[in-house]
Amino acid sequence: MRFATTRGASRIRLRWAFRGAVGLLWATVFAQASWGHGDRHEHLARVDAKIEADPDSLRLRLERAEALRRLGHYEESLVDLDRVLALSPDDLQVHYLRGLTHFDWGKYGDAETSLRRYVDSVPESPSAHTALAETLIRQGRHREAGDEYSLAIGTHPTPAPDLYIARARAYRAAGAEFQGLAIRGLDDAMASLGPLVTLQRLAIEIELERGNHAGALGRIDEVLADAPRKERWLAYKGRILASTGREQDALEAFRLARAAHQSLPLRVRSSPAMVSLGESIATHLENHLNSEIAP
Q: pTM of the entire structure?
C-alpha cells in the first residue's frame, strides 16, 4: 500500500471559490497568533469595544472567540461562536473553531463532533484533518488518527516531515499489526522528501520493535553512507549487532565508532554528549574484549 499525495485535488478545485470567499476573514481570525500574553488582553479589550459598537459583526465575533480561546476562556469563546452560528448558520469555520476550543478545553468528544462536521463539508482542509487526528489520539483511537493524518498529507500541497512522523507514530501506537503501515508511510515520505534522518531514525526504531533487525541494520547502513558524522550511528549499529549475538561484527562497529569519535575536534569531543558517547563506546569495547578472553 502506498499513500496518495494528490488525494483531494479535484475537490480542492471545486471548493476554490468558497475558500476565496472566507480567506480574508480566516486570515483576520489568526492574525494574532504571535501575541504576547499582555498584548492578547489589550487586543481583547479593543475588540470588546468594537463589538459593543457593532454587536452583529461576524468578523469581530470570530476574532474575539479566537482571542478568548488562546487565553483559556473557553466558555466565553463558545458563546461568541454560538452567536456567529445563530447569525450565519452556514458559516463552516465556526465548527472548526468550536473543535479547537473543545480540544483545548479537554472535551475531546465534543471536539471530534465539531471537527467532523467541518471536514465533512471541507474535506480538503489539511489543518482540520490534523486537528481531528490529534483529537482521536487523545481518545486512544490511534489507527483512525493515522487515517486522518493520511488525509491531511494527501490534501496538503507541501506536507512537512512532522506530518509523516505523526502518522507513523499513530499507526505504531495502534499495535503490531499496523507497524508495517507505519514503515511504508515513512518510506513514501522519504521517496518524496529525501532520506531525512528523522524519518529514517523512526523507521529503524519500528523495525527493531517488529523484530526486523536486518531491516534496521540496512537502514543504518543507508544513513552511514551519507552521514558526515558517523560516530553515533556506528555505536547504534554496534548495539544492535550485539543484541543479535553477532559479537565480532559488533566489535568492529564499536571500533569504527571509537575511531570516528576520536577524529572529532577536541572542542566537539569535549561536549557532555560526546563525552558520554565516548564512555559508552569504551564500555562496549571493554565488555566485548573481556568476553573474548574469558575462560
A: 0.80
